[in-house]
Fold this protein.
Amino acid sequence: MEQLWFTALLNRAFGGVVLTLLQALGIHPKYPAMPISNSFAMEIMVALILLSFFIAVRLRLSVDNPGSLQHAMEGIEGFFGNMAHEIIGHHYHDYQGYLVTLGLFILTCNLIGIIPSFESPTAVPLVPLGCALLTWFYYHFQGLRANGVGYFKHFMGPVWWLAPLMLPIEIFSHCARLLSLTVRLFANMFAGEMVTLVFFSLVPIGVPIIFEGLHIGVSLIQTYIFVILACVYLGEATAHEH
């Protein structure tokens, strides 16, 4: 496996500890000398970038004289907040923090691949799957929190005698959401990465800039779709009609 420079740095610093921990859990990495993968290293990089951004915004918060970072964060929060309000309803505030964080994480993961010597972790299936699993468990948890045991009535259909038919259909439908969220994000980001790499190898000057622009566009669209679907699932799960 070819390591990115940041992955190599993490493996030199923490590879031994990570390998010991994985082996203690019964997990045997394919490359024991490099237990930290490129995708995981890029996730750490994204987390550090976002943490630095949030700290910088917090340190510059001002009511009288807001700076550019504060305006940017307010714009981002307002964008996701308006989206959530339109789809989820008046109680969207309870989920806005998660949606903003999810959107920023996915967007940064998508865009980091345009930086030389970095790659998009969302072009590896495990990362979109992790985001999908987190969202899946989150909206079910919020559904139970909002409706209690009555949340499970949603799986039974509108009338009791349809329950034997509706229950397996609903279970399959909710499991299919995991596949849909994962494959949509992974396939688009992987294809974008491959197209960009191919054109960089064929025509290293000029033409690849067009595909970098395409990569940015795909990154924005896929982030938007992922967060919209998370809003839809949250809205369905927390609606009190269930």
User: Anything to note?
Assistant: The helical segments are 5-24, 38-59, 68-88, 93-111, 126-147, 163-202, 207-238.
